[in-house]
Amino acid sequence: MKYTKLGLTNTKQMFQDALTGRYAVPAFNIYNMETLMAVLSAARTTHSPVILGVSESALKYMGADMLVGMIGGCNISPDMQIALHLDHGNSVAACQHAIEIGFSSVMIDASKLPFDENVKLTKQVVDFAHKHNVSVESELGTLSGIEDENTFGTQSSYTNPSDVERFVQLTDTDSLAIAIGTSHGAYKRTAPTQELRFDILSEIAKRLPDFPLVLHGASSIPTDLVNTINEYGGNLSGTLGIPSTQLRQATQMNICKINVDSDLRLGFTAAVRQHLAQNPNNFNPREILGAAREMMTTICINEIRNIMGSENKR
Ligand code: G3H
Ligand code: 13P
Ligand code: ZN
Hints:
- By secondary structure, the chain is an alpha/beta fold.
- Helices cover about 45% and strands about 15% of the residues.
- It has helices at about 10-20, 35-45, 55-60, 65-70, 90-100, 115-130, 160-170, 200-205, 225-230, 245-250, 260-280, 285-310; strands at about 25-30, 50-55, 80-90, 105-110, 135-140, 145-150, 150-155, 175-180, 215, 255-260.
- The strands form 2 sheets. The protein has an 8-stranded parallel barrel with strand order 1-2-3-4-5-8-9-10, surrounded by 9 helices.
- The longest helix has 24 residues, at about 285-310.
- The two termini are about 25 Å apart.
- Residues about 145-150 have low confidence and may be disordered.
- It binds glyceraldehyde-3-phosphate, 1,3-dihydroxyacetonephosphate (13P) and zinc ion (ZN).
- Glyceraldehyde-3-phosphate binds next to helix 3, strand 3 and strand 6.
């Protein structure tokens, strides 16, 4: 399936516009009808470009036919700018498969490999993807936290600014995810005073002017959501996200895409727990999941307005 048939676009124009306008395009992870509808509803309300992030495990969970069927059912209109993006693809085959079924953008995450192997794998994906007018994101440096349900990295290493120009030149990648202190999941920092490494970001941006950079592990982990979860029977402690102020600062420094998954997971869980606790007689899944969908839509709209700065950029 060619992605244009689904009303999707690649990320090239989105990122050019984001660089010029100094904002970030949100990439929200989706894994079912509720997350997909929430993200698209927020995109429609705010007139924001949006990237639908699908991890390999999410793709396996939904199945390719189901995902493509659901996207086709969303009636994405030409006035919207929506990309379908493989998040953390970990092989050339996974990226090729995604492109064949209708993705308009893929990430090849070979960041745990040595530099030369990362270049080799990324270049293979770029060669294939560009033949299909699909954008490619790659990564230099590694984040800690949960990257995929199968992998948990305890080590992180910041991106080395002296590697970035050579990497981009050798691979022809369209965007680059960098490690400057974010991490996946809800436990991102050990102390509230810990700041992102804006010195590294600034050095990278200087070496790669006008080139789109990406932040993974960038959920803000709102305390009200964590509190609601805990109030209604959950048990999360020690959560700490990336403050919105720091994310906004990053959007002013060539960060064109900000990835958010955990915030929607928290929103989903908070809404379901609250709904069930407040309506103990209700066993109607549409109402339970409807509450979750509504909550996730609100979170996406808030983040588009208050973090990404991408409202009315479509
Ligand atoms: O960055 C990774 C995402 O949070 C996806 O996680 O593989 O559990 O869907 P997942
Ligand atoms: P969070 O865990 O911070 O939401 O990060 C999501 C992500 O990077 C998806 O690729
Ligand atoms: Zn990620």
